[in-house]
Input
Amino acid sequence: MAHAIRFHETGGPDVLRWEEVTVGDPGPGEVRIRHVAVGLNFADTYFRTGLYPAPLPAGLGVEASGVIEAVGEGVQHVAEGDRVTYTGSPLGAYSTERVMPADSLIKLPEEISCETAAAMTMRGLTSAYLLRRIHPLKSGDTVLLHAAAGGVGLIFSQWAKLLGLTVIGTVSSKEKAEVARAHGCDHIIYYRREDVAERVRELTGGKGVPVVFDSIGKDTVAGSMASLQRRGLLVCFGTASGVPPLDAMQLAVHGSLFVTRPALADYIAEPAERDSLAGELFGHVASGRITIEINQRYALQDAVQAHRDMEAGRTTGSSVFVL
Output
């Protein structure tokens, strides 16, 4: 019998339940996939708490990798036995197997394991669109990256170095600073005890940075805006501390700033663009230019503890459920 993590009400980690589920045969345009590893992402907590609404009861998770066991009518780009990964599909990745639409699947090259794929598909594609689609960054530019020791942060910093960028990263502890530095972060700011904008100005000779990548949200948005140079861009791509209040007048006060709140789904909606970004990501990882650190592994039935660890800031790098 297949199993899945489901929740019947929104709330804290304790609402997550390990349940038996029935998985049928795939219909037209669908596949049945047996998961080998499942990605654990902070965005999963947004669905669990109700910040992102979902009809209840619901499954959880949007990222996993595994092996296709059956294909439905009309599926052509993947076949039975293929190793695949995905992110951004309908909720339900926290499961041992599932039936799902085939269109969102990405075939894995032989050099990349299912565990590595589950640890990097969402984070890696996020890093890809942030660095390759959001702003015309050029070699020599300096950027500010919040949560530099997180799953996105470690991939982002390595990729940024390949592009010739200087990365100023914020972290919450000495241990996380060491991890961030080891993955290419050039300068560290301890955002809980230092004035982020003041340190950024010191490190940039008073100029500020052209782009800030902020996944924290409410707690950091003021410092992020104050760190930008005139007509700089604030990229709010996450809300770990809550949705930031944005006063349009403050954009003018801080130098005619721009702000965007992008979502990965809009940068991989077109198969050609998704495959292009995935190709760049897989190429860097397969060659060793970017390494993927899986620092936490959990059994899927331990999802409650995994969510507690993640929300308490006890995790670094990527986390996965191993089946």
User: Anything to note?
Assistant: The first strand starts at residue 2 and ends at 7. The longest helix spans residues 114-132.
